[in-house]
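Q: What changes when glutamine is included in the input?
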Amino acid sequence: MARYIFITGGVVSSLGKGLASAAVGALLQARGYSVRLRKLDPYLNVDPGTMSPFEHGEVFVTDDGAETDLDLGHYERFTGVAARNTDSVSSGRIYSTVLEKERRGDYLGKTIQVIPHVTDQIKEFLDVGGDEVDFMLCEIGGTVGDIEGLPFFEAIRQYANDKPRGQCIFMHLTLLPYIAASGELKTKPTQHSVKELRSIGIAPDVLVCRSEGPIPKKEREKLALFCNVRPDSVIAAQDLKTIYEVPLAYHREGLDTAVLNAFGMGSTEPDLSRWEDVYDRIFNAEGEVNIAIVGKYTQLEDAYKSVKEALIHGGMANRVKVNVDWVDSEVFDTTDAAPHLEGYHAILVPGGFGERGTEGKIKAAQFCRERKVPYMGICLGMQLAVIEAARNVAKLADAGSEEFDHEAGEKRFTPVVYHLKEWVQGNHTVKRKSDDDKGGTLRLGAYTAHLAEGSKVAEIYGTTEIEERHRHRYEVDTKFRQQLEDVGLQFSGMSPDGSLPEIVEWKDHPWFIGVQYHPELKSKPFEPHPLFASFVKAAIENSRLV
Ligand code: GLN
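A: The predicted holo structure follows.
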């Protein structure tokens, strides 16, 4: 049975609880333990799939097709452990399961209450897979004291009490504000946050305190005394230059030792060579390239979190620093794109939904095709590259996507991208209707693609069969395949039955690839995704030309 580490937060949100959890996972792995990380989100949406990126940042998709919180991306990037559907849960999902059970009559006439029915459902979720790993790390979203979070806090309190002593510990992340006028780090908000936690029956074993600088001995002792933790379990989490420094920095502060001590486990020496190499590649880069992400949600970097990280990993693979710029495509929807795009060594058009800003992205694809600038199109970015090819090269002037016609409520385009209503998953056929619910009805999760021998992508991947994660409702229509291949756009990756285009590439271009899936979701700092590594390499080569 796994040992459980519950990670909670206080004082303010956005302290990097997800990263701290991921770093603890990585540090435990470095000591030879197996880990799994899990996120419990108090909001009432069943999953973040239907939320706007402005609300919640990127939706991270798992191999088994769950639409989850972006923190699961951090977990995967730091531990390399593929997340599953059962690693992300929200109040909405817990409540809908409880209500389904109630309708079925599973509760045998009982009155359904938060305690015990909702908390039992949460505990059931915590148990899943507990026999597979040494440590299960469970992060509770939000901050202590939030109304929606209460059932989760109650459930983890009960859970620790249900288990044998010493099987569960609590780690609490807070902020120590620095008051410049008095030159002091303030411990009071942390004291209050711990008091709040203790009032619901949870006493933290490890306190991780975010601060701009180091925590002086006096403040550390004060925190230990007032929050009832050992002084060596008060861990300073200082602001760092890059997130990939976090495991090494937290190790230096003694976080992994404090966690193991809380379980009464002696500490062995960790093997941190993986993180030392990552650090070396970031801080000893031998050049830089400028890459633009041309998208719609550019004000909110979290919307394309994994894309940005994957580009950084691609830089690490080539030992260069990647400077990422966010370019809003709407700005040049109706004007010339060139002034906005010139000077970048490569351009990436990421996934997205809806028509807004797409004309600008189509222009970005055209700019890259004509000027031989490396282009990576992901999901919508691939669909738009196909539309560009159809309009401007294959001379199908009114080519477009059904997605935009649906949105506008009128038929304006020849749909080279259509609404996919039936596809094969494993050994069954998935069927969808136009008026299906929005939640969970996309083509989601890992699917296999076959790559054409001799294509650029086959060379990049070093194989002709790959498996990548998907999240889309629309699909490039094979009806136009011949027409597009005749003008040089090769359909170099297809679903195993040949019905769904997975990859397109321009034959006479140094690097122009569009993929229907999301390669960014599988990239890791210590294992950069081959497409991103190759894309950044192409950007470096292009930078030598300009
Ligand atoms: N909106 C497009 C579709 O549903 C692309 C989705 C995406 O980029 N993730 O197919």
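Observations recorded in class: The chain is about 35% helix and 25% strand.
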